Structures are given as structure tokens and as C-alpha cells.
Amino acid sequence: MDGTEKAFHRPSIEKHGDVMDHKAMRPNGEVFRGVYYREHPTRIHGMVPDRYYFLKFWGHGKTMTEGIGWASDGVKPTDAHKRLIDIKAALRAGTYEPPKERKDRERVEREAAALVSARQKKEKITLGQFFNEKYMPAQAGKKEKTLAREEELFRLHIEPYVGMKTFGDVSQFDVERIKARLVRAGKSGRTIQYCLAVLRQVFNTARQHGIHSLESPTSRVKKIKFDNRRVRHLSESEAELLLNKIYLKTKYLYRQCVLSLHAGLRFGEIASLTWGDVDLARGILTLRDTKNSKTRSIPITRKVRREVFGGLVPSCPDDLVFPDSKGRKLKAVSAVFRRTVDEMGLNAGVSDPRQKVVFHTLRHTFASWLVERGVDLIVVSRLLGHSSISLTERYSHLRPDSLRAAVKVLDDDALSELKKASEP
User: Fold this and answer.
1) What is the mean pLDDT of residues 286-314?
2) Which helix (H) or strand (E) holds 392?
3) Helix, strand, coil content of the chain in percent (nearest 5)
4) 3-class DSSP assignment, residue 225
5) Are 45 and 71 in contact (CB under 8 A)?
6) Are the CB atoms for 399 and 265 separated by under 8 Å?
7) What pTM did the predictor assign?
8) What are the φ and ψ backbone dihedral angles of 338, each rounded to 5 degrees?
9) Distance (Å) of CA 251 to CA 57, 184, 242, 245
10) What DSSP element (H or E) covers 344?
11) Which has the higher per-residue pLDDT, 408 or 219?
């Protein structure tokens, strides 16, 4: 301890080594009853050692102490005595708090006040503020395209109507109005569903951050029913003509088209494919980080091996098979595909998005051709990497003969029963 540190400055005074407790004296030489002091071993105040004043008194069935302060801080014996008078009055009234208990209570009160202040501050956060400051940064793991779409939906269809409101002020009626505006604007069922899903995710994320403890108002809004499944697939002649035209423009895109048309890969799976996932000797592709987060292995045909990988020189296992011009992962299908489709007039006069030919139509065509050739839906489902067989059942209409055959079995059974009944 150096000479400037003020020892004994504690709420409760305890015997400290050889330091002596002295009774405080009045100017007339009388003792201040209950007022004591201790002298600092080195520090001088005025002409005498610095003094620390404290009290000793009887309370709660025992001798109690309470520190008052240093003479160098301006504390006088009269100040200590006044405090002793107040303490005795509090003891008689039953309201006295020992210094430690008072300190603990004040700490708890400060912490509680801080929690209330923090909660009030959180409750004042608007949806717009939370979306921009908390929600979007927390979605860093999502794909860039997904983030851009969520930001667009919130900015155009959510923020103008509830972005300035706090979470507690957003009602089911607000959500119904957002939904009604989207319907009047002619937005697709998928867009409406996606928009309400973004609002629900914002509410859920805010609840996880302790902003509120409310149920999302979207939970009480009736979901819009729609069928967003693509139904258009290419005929063999359309597919051949499309790929031939693309081949003449860019062999790079042509290879990707063949991989989707004859192996059923999504564009994202093509863009993520690395050489370590290509086993040409066995004719197997391993697809990782797929849409349903599952890894699957699929066989490829001789045509795929020849048209897609023929002429390509395998590199390091971690290298992409189809990188962009800077060696990075492709983010979008080449615009050449859309221009070629337009040149062929495949989408001329088509307004229904489900009927339009897009890159994903190649994958849809792959599945449709398999089903038309009698391949079981479960097998097709595994090749496509569907998370549920229900997703593959959209292709069941391409096998009407199988349904007729099933019904015919009943006809045959009924005929057999009639024959038996007619026998003597």
C-alpha cells in the first residue's frame, strides 16, 4: 500500500492489524459517544495523521459498525454523530439497513432498472429498424439470391405498411391488408406465401433476440392455396433443337444443359460440382449441399460422359467443374439460354410462369421422360433428390396406362367372380 491509498474505507469496520480505534472528541473535550476514528499510518492531513471516522452502535441484537469517511475528504466528527442519530431513529422505526444489505439492494435495483430500460428500448424498435440492423446481418449464411429476394419483398410489400410500427403494434389485420394488396396487385400465390414467410421469420428472429415474446400475427392469417409446380416439359425434338442451337453459341452452357437434361441436376448442383465428385470410371456423380441439404450419388449415361466431360481435363478435387471466368462459383444461368428460348419462340404467348421454358425445365423434362418410359416414381424421386415422394407425384399423370392397368385388374376380378357365380 502506498502513502496515498485510503485504508479502512469500507462499509463495515473491522479490526485491521495493530491499528487502534480512537474515540472522537468534541472541542470541549467531551467524547462523541459512538463515534470513532482510525489514523492512517503515513498520510498527514493538516498537522495530524489523516483520520477515518466510523460508528459503533447496538442494533439487531449485536454491536454494529458503519464507515463514514476520511477527514481529508471533509468528514468531521459532527457529521458522523449526525449519521449516528439518524441510524438510531431508523433502528427504533425498524427501517435501518446495514451498509452491506443497502449496497446489495441498490445493486439489485440498478440491475432491475437497467433491465427495464433495456426492455423498453427493445420494445421501441420498429420492424424496419430490426430488419435492417439485426435480421439481415443474421442471415449471412443464406444464398445471395435468397437474401436479395427477402430484402426486395420486405422493402416493397412489408416496410411501407408496417415498417414504422413496433412488433407489439403489428396486428393480424395489418397482415391481412398486406396479403390483400398483393392479391390485388396480381402477385402469384408463391410470391404472397414468400412475403408472409419473410414477415414471420422477422417476428421469430426478433423473439429469439428478446425483442418481444409475441406470437407472429401471420400465424392467424389463412394461407393462400396455389399450385406452383412447373408442368411444361420438352418433347425430344424441342430438346434436340434447343441444345443444338446452344451448342453452336457456347459449348460451356451446352455441357450444363446436357447435365440437367440427361442427369436431372439443378443449376445450383451443377454450379457446385467439383472434380472430386466426378467418378468417370464408375459413371457416378456425387452431389453435395443440395437443396434439401442431403448428399446423393447418381449414375450418368454414356451420353453425359461423352458430351459433358469429354474433352475436359480434370484438375484438383476441390476445383469447380464449371467455374465462372474468375474461377468462382457460377451465380446464374447464362443469358444465352433465355435468348435461345426466345429465338425459338418456346415462350411466345405464354403468360403462366409454370408453362414457360426455363433452365429448370431441362430437369423437369428428364423426370418426365423417365416416367413416360415406365420408370417407377420412387426411383425417379431418388434420382432427383426429392425430400418426399409427394414432390415426384406431379409426374404421375404421365403414366395413365398404369392407372388403367390397375383398374383393369378389378375388371378381371369382377368377371372371374361372375363366372364362378354362374357355375352350377
Assistant:
1) 88
2) helix 389-392
3) 55, 15, 35
4) coil
5) yes
6) no
7) 0.55
8) -65, -40
9) 97, 44, 13, 10
10) helix 335-344
11) 219
